[in-house]
Each structure stands twice: as structure tokens, then as C-alpha cells.
Design brief:
mainly alpha
């Protein structure tokens, strides 16, 4: 099978700089990466969605969350998606400098911090009973409370929890060695040494998720109608134009439910020094997204459906953010698995026995009390990792890896396995608790409360009820997740492992117990239970 075609349809560089020659980038797009945290996947995704965007350098800017329908269908050949992302340098300095490591605080940063405090103090109007510095300390503690990731990094490389638009910012790194070598001592001299182009932590994973949505909505309607009946979607959800319009409305719900005062105060702090804002935003006037594989439209469409359902759920905004982080990570794992199946050379019989995307994950109980399923899950995880390795060694991908002008094929494959391939799958699975134990042998698939909650809120529409058996069917269709019964038999066949006698297993009793403990299970009789998504907005 030829190497993946990119969306957007841009030129891939294998020979000149070798940007796209790495097998992991060739297979999965540019790029899912081990060093990107699950919060940074979501923060980068929401940053793209909430920024001013354009398609191609000659295209006009638009502020909508998604490109409009006509732009999607008529995407110009070779045109990248660009977005203009704020840096929020003064806001990060105010919020994070006091909690950062002492050896990362350059004297110019401390000088600017004092300037910000002075200017904010002058801007505050307070009665005599409240000290202005006390107000500033409270504000600093407030914004420090939104610290999401990067507490061990320089203050400017840290990331806010993306609960509000004013807290979304591109990655910024302080080039300390260069600044020291050039004798930087003042804030004005320091500004050129803040870089927003290195992609050390926000490594394009969120951009790739966004491109997958755009790619899915452009898919030929006949392809969609052949594929979507497997997933039990509503009539409206199988209409890509309807889903696009609904997601456009609902994605904005993620970051617009914080108090308006928080947005205003964040903007005040970040803009208190107009010179800084003007200087640092020059570099990020246009950030250009890379590409995702064109054939990943099936998982992209499912991601759109699941995002839309979660955005419609009547839940706390902070909980929604947490569940969205899990959702982004689960989708990355699904993307790695589905794309690998396409290129690993599996037989049609094996692919047909997998879930809706042709693969299977066997999930055991958290306690591992059922040893037979526990061992199946361990071996199934090994099969998934081996499938990813095999896909990376597809003949055409292998040939393109040899075209890099400065790096050997062996070096590129070591990097692909460790940073983009099966070790990324294992690392990300452990970060969200889908794979345990965190260290040591015997890794296997399990559920925790957050993952299960995400599945209920995205595999069922708000207010919907379905039988326990139908819920297990949906798990297998959307994620290839097998718990018991026919799905477990199919997953064992896909993994080329021995079949279990279903009568000798616990019939998914542990899953029912977890659902009941979370308040999602309704017992109708000994033979029938319903799963309920209660988080709907009452009219």
C-alpha cells in the first residue's frame, strides 16, 4: 500500500530537509509525539479552534471555530491552514514567575515582573480598606490555580488549563543560553530570545486533531453512508453538514462558560505592557499547521460526533475540560491503532473481526481477578504494539525513510518507535490509566472512572438510554474495546489468541458494577439493564 497521502494536499519533504521522512510522521501525520502531555493536546486543539485562521497565504481570515462548509469543500490544492495565536507573555510572567524554579528566573524577567505589578497597582481602584498589593497577590494565586502543566519548566513554557479563551496561548520558550552568551540584561533586549517556533511541548498534536476534523467533513458522502451505519448514530449525526454546524456551535461552549470577569482580568494583565504585546505577537502572526493522513477520515468523523455529544452534555465546565483531555488522548490511541491496521499487512479476515476501525483492545477488570481475560489483555496489548511496528515498516514508508539527506534509516526508525510509534501508544495509555501498571511487566488494558465516564457521555447522546449489551457493542464499534461475549471472541481472533469459553467468564460483571457505582446503570430485571446518560439540558 502506498505511503499515506496528506491533507491538506501539500508537498511532503523527504529529500531536502527530511522534515517528513521519519516513518512515524509518514504514517500518522505531523505529529503525535511522546513529549506532548494530554493537557497540551487539548490546549493546542482549542488554541487552533479559537484563533483567527486562514486557508493558504492568500486566503482571507475567518474567526469561526471551523472553516465554513464551502471553504472545506473547496480547499485549495497545496494550501495549509494558518492561525494567529496569542503569546500571553505578560500573563504567564505574572502568574507563574513566583512559582518557577529560581535558576530559571533571569534578572530581566524579575525586572519586568516588578514593572507589571507597578502598572497593575496603578490601574486598580480600591477603597482604603483593601491593600492593592493584597489584591495583586490574590490575583496571582487565582491564575496560578489555572496552571495546567509544566511546573518544572521555565515560567513562559508553562500552560494554563484551557477553561477560557483568554488562557489559551502558543508555546513559548526562553533561549537562556543564547541570552546569556549575548549579555542580555534588560527586558527589551530579552524579548527576541523568547521563541514560539520550537514545538518542544505543543508538538502539533492538537493541530493534527483539528485537521482530522476538517478532513472528515470533506469526505465523499457515499463513503460516509457506507461506513456510518456500523456505529448507531442518529440521523442528524450521519449528515456531515448538520454535524459541522452543530459542532461549530457547541465547541465554543468549552471556553465560554467561565465568568466574564476572569476573561477581562486576564486581558488586562496581559495587555498592561503594550510594547511587550506588540513585540512578541509579531513572531506568531501566522502559525502554519502541517498535515494529517487523508485516509484517517473515519476516526476523524467519530471524533467529531463524540466531541459534539460531550459539548452538549450538561456538566461542570471544569469536568468537561478534564473529560476532553481524556477524549483527545483516547482518540490519539485510536488513530495510532486504526492507521497501523491499514498499513501492517493484516488479512481481510483479521481486519473484519476487529471493531469498526479494524482493530481490537481487550480490556480486563481493574483488579485483574479474572486471570484468563487478564492474560488475553496483556497479549493483546503486545499485538497492538507489534502491529504499529509492522505498519511503520511498510515498504513505501521504508523507502521514503531512506531519502533523508542527513540521518540514517536506522536512526529514524529508532526515533519512530520511541517517539511516534508503539512506545507513544504505551506511554499515553499509561498516562490516562487505560494501561496498567505504570511501571514493570504485565501491561494490560483496564478502565478507570474517568475513562468510563467519558465513554458514557460520548457513546450515548445526552438523555439517551441503551441496553448494557448495546453499550458493549458501541464500545467495540467506536474503539475496538472488547469486554465479554461475542466482542471478546472477535478480539481474540483478531489478536490470533486462543478463544475463551464465555460461560467461564464473569460476563462483564465488573463493568456493570463500575457503571452502577457511577450512577449510570439502571436495573430493569436480572436479565436486562439500561445504561443512561443523564446529563441533558432540560427544556
Amino acid at each position: 500500500m502506498p505511503a499515506p497521502r496528506p491533507f491538506p494536499s501539500i508537498h511532503l519533504d523527504y529529500k531536502d530537509t527530511g522534515t517528513d521522512a521519519n516513518p512515524g510522521i509518514q504514517l500518522f501525520g505531523r505529529r503525535f509525539f511522546t513529549d506532548q502531555s494530554i493537557m497540551e493536546y487539548l490546549a493546542e486543539f482549542l488554541l487552533v479552534a479559537n484563533s483567527t485562521k486562514r486557508i493558504g497565504k492568500g486566503g482571507g481570515d475567518f474567526d469561526s471555530v471551523l472553516p465554513d462548509w464551502e471553504h472545506l469543500l473547496r480547499w485549495p490544492h497545496g494550501a495549509k491552514l494558518g492561525y494567529r495565536a496569542p503569546v500571553r507573555l505578560c500573563l504567564k510572567l505574572f502568574s507563574f514567575l513566583g512559582a518557577s524554579k529560581l535558576d530559571t528566573r533571569h534578572k530581566s524577567h524579575k525586572q519586568q515582573y516588578e514593572v507589571i505589578l507597578r502598572d497593575l497597582e496603578a490601574a486598580i481602584h480600591a477603597d482604603g480598606a483593601i491593600e492593592k498589593r493584597e489584591i495583586l497577590r490574590s490575583l496571582e494565586n487565582l491564575f496560578l490555580g489555572f496552571q495546567g502543566v509544566g511546573g518544572n519548566r521555565t515560567w513562559c513554557a508553562q500552560v494554563f488549563v484551557p477553561v477560557a479563551t483568554a488562557l489559551l496561548a502558543c508555546e513559548t520558550n526562553w533561549q537562556q543560553t543564547k541570552a546569556g552568551r549575548n549579555g542580555v540584561s534588560s527586558w527589551g533586549d530579552a524579548l527576541p530570545y523568547f521563541s514560539s517556533s520550537q514545538r518542544l511541548f505543543m508538538a502539533r498534536g492538537g493541530e493534527l486533531l483539528y485537521l482530522q476534523l476538517c478532513n472528515a467533513f470533506r469526505t465523499d458522502i457515499d463513503k460516509l453512508q457506507q461506513f456510518l451505519p456500523l456505529f448507531g448514530l442518529s440521523k442528524e449525526e450521519t449528515d456531515p453538514q448538520y454535524l459541522h454546524a452543530s459542532l461549530e456551535r457547541n465547541l465554543s461552549r468549552i471556553t465560554n462558560q467561565c465568568p466574564e470577569t476572569l476573561e477581562k482580568v486576564a486581558k488586562l494583565i496581559d495587555g498592561i505592557d503594550g510594547f511587550t504585546a506588540k513585540q512578541v505577537n509579531r513572531e506568531t502572526e501566522h502559525i502554519w499547521c502541517a498535515w494529517c493522513p487523508e485516509e484517517t477520515w473515519p476516526e476523524g468523523y467519530l471524533f467529531a460526533v463524540e466531541l459534539n455529544r460531550l459539548c452538549q452534555a450538561a456538566i461542570d465546565p471544569v469536568e468537561r475540560i478534564e473529560l476532553l483531555m481524556f477524549g483527545c488522548a483516547l482518540h490519539v490511541l485510536r488513530s495510532l491503532s486504526a492507521q497501523s491496521v491499514r498499513y501492517a499487512g493484516l488479512s481481510e479476515d483479521l481486519r473484519a473481526s476487529g471493531g469498526g476501525l479494524g482493530y481490537a483492545w481487550i480490556v480486563s477488570s481493574p483488579e485483574g481477578s479474572e486471570r484468563s481475560v487478564k492474560h488475553l489483555s496483556q497479549r493483546n496489548l503486545q499485538v497492538i504494539q507489534r502491529t504499529i511496528q509492522q505498519a511503520l515498516r511498510n515498504n513505501d514508508i521504508f523507502k521514503n525513510a531512506g531519502l533523508h539527506p542527513r540521518r540514517s534509516r536506522e536512526t529514524l526508525y529508532n526515533e519512530a518507535d520511541n517517539r511516534y510509534g508503539h512506545k507513544l501508544f504505551l506511554s499515553l495509555g499509561k498516562k490516562i490509566g487505560l494501561v496498567v501498571p505504570p511501571r514493570g511487566p504485565g501491561a494490560r488494558f483496564v478502565f478507570n472512572e474517568k475513562i468510563l465516564r467519558y465513554f458514557v457521555l460520548t457513546l450515548l447522546r445526552p438523555g439517551e438510554r441503551q441496553t448494557f449489551d448495546n453499550f458493549k457493542t458501541a464500545l467495540y464499534a467506536h474503539y475496538g474495546i472488547a469486554i465479554h461475549g461475542s466482542e471478546l471472541s472477535k478480539a481474540a481472533f483478531w489478536s490470533e489468541l486462543p478463544q475463551l469459553d464465555a460461560a467461564g467468564t464473569e460476563s462483564g460483571a465488573w463493568l456493570a458494577a463500575m457503571l452502577q457505582a457511577s450512577g449510570f446503570l439502571i436495573h430493569l430485571s436480572d436479565a436486562c439493564s439500561l445504561i443512561h446518560n443523564p446529563f441533558f439540558y432540560e427544556k
